[in-house]
Amino acid sequence: MAIRNKLYFASDFHLGTGTYPSSREREDRLVRWLDMIKADAAEVFLMGDVFDFWFEYKTVVPKGYIRFLGKLAELNDAGIKLWFFKGNHDMWMFDYFEQELGATIISNELEIERNGKKFYLHHGDGLGPGDTFYKFLKGIFRSKLCQWLFARIHPNLGVGVANYWSRHSRKVNLSKEDNKPGEQEWLVDFCNQLLQTHFYDYLIFGHRHLPLDIKLNDKSRYINLGEWVTACSYAVFDGETVQLLYFEK
After folding, report:
1. Which among 86, 70, 82 has a CA at the least distance from the CA of 30?
2. Adjacency order of strands within the sheet including 233-237
3. Residue 174 lies inside a defined structural domain of this protein
4. DSSP 42-71
5. Measured between alpha carbons, how far is 219 from 25 in angstroms, rounded to an integer?
6. Residue 1 lies in a domain
7. What CATH number should be reported for the domain holding residue 180?
8. Which one, of 152, 149, 172, lies nearest residue 60 by Cα?
9. Disulfide engineering: 43 pairs with which of 27, 65, 81, 108, CB 3.0-4.6 Å?
10. Helical H runs in the chain?
11. What angle do CA 143, 228, 41 make, to 5 degrees?
12. DSSP 8-state symbol, 113
């Protein structure tokens, strides 16, 4: 039996986007990936935009994703630690995944140390300079008042409106994806600023849909996890180093 000692990181599955068959195909691929990593994973970090939209009413959650959630429950039952990060598409997570999957929900950044290596983890939205309008909207959407008001809307209407907004938001973001890729990434700028006052071996993000592994200095690396609509990329820490890999590419 393999020793469970690896950390796995993945982001931007956007389950629910596209046609139902395409979303189901993505879900089945994710289940196969979770099946593969189950043998040696100690912790799994799902770093935002797992769903294209998510809102937990008091007694209702969005339907679907049964196979994916069931596989996560299997990992939790096997003793594998699960972490869920709120992304810009699924920021309205409350306690459902904590209760059902034993997961820890992360609203912003998470700093951890494993085997002597320091990690800075964040979905990646709202960081760095610019994007003032989104940062303003994020503050509104995460407010208790906004969440309370949305919960008053019947799910048939609320989820429909939210899905429309989610599709619009994704199109806008995709139109910006060619915006200074690579070493001029705004998240690279953010990391370099952060490293002036703090040290991390690895700074790992999602959000940008660009699988990237960039050396920031002699000891620190910026890693973007990419996405699962086309690239199916993820990262793994084996106790010594982090690798950016692809599943069934």
Report:
1. 70
2. 104-106, 81-85, 41-46, 6-10, 233-237, 242-246
3. yes
4. EEEEE-S-SBSS-B--SS---S--HHHHHH
5. 38
6. no
7. 3.60.21.10
8. 152
9. 81
10. 20-37, 66-77, 96-101, 132-141, 144-151, 155-175, 186-194
11. 90
12. E
- Per-residue pLDDT for 183 more than 60? no
Would you call 80 helix, strand, or coil by DSSP?
A: coil
Say if residues 205 and 225 touch (Cβ distance below 8 Å). Answer: yes
- Residue predicted with more confidence, 249 or 212: 212
d(CA 181, CA 245): 19
DSSP for 171-200, written as a single string: HHHHHTTTSS-GGG-HHHHHHHHHTTT---
- Domain range for 206: 6-246
Q: Confirm whether 230 is domain-assigned.
A: yes
CA–CA dist 168, 184 (Å, integer): 26
Tens of pLDDT, residues 6-56: 999 999 999 988 888 999 999 999 999 999 999 999 999 999 899 987 777
CA distance 143 to 76: 30
Backbone φ and ψ for 208, nearest 5 degrees, come out as -85, -10
Determine the distance from the C-alpha atom of residue 244 to the mean position of all C-alpha atoms in its chain, rounded to a whole number.
15
Domains contained in the chain, number: 1
What's the rounded Cα separation, in Å, for the pair 115 and 173?
36
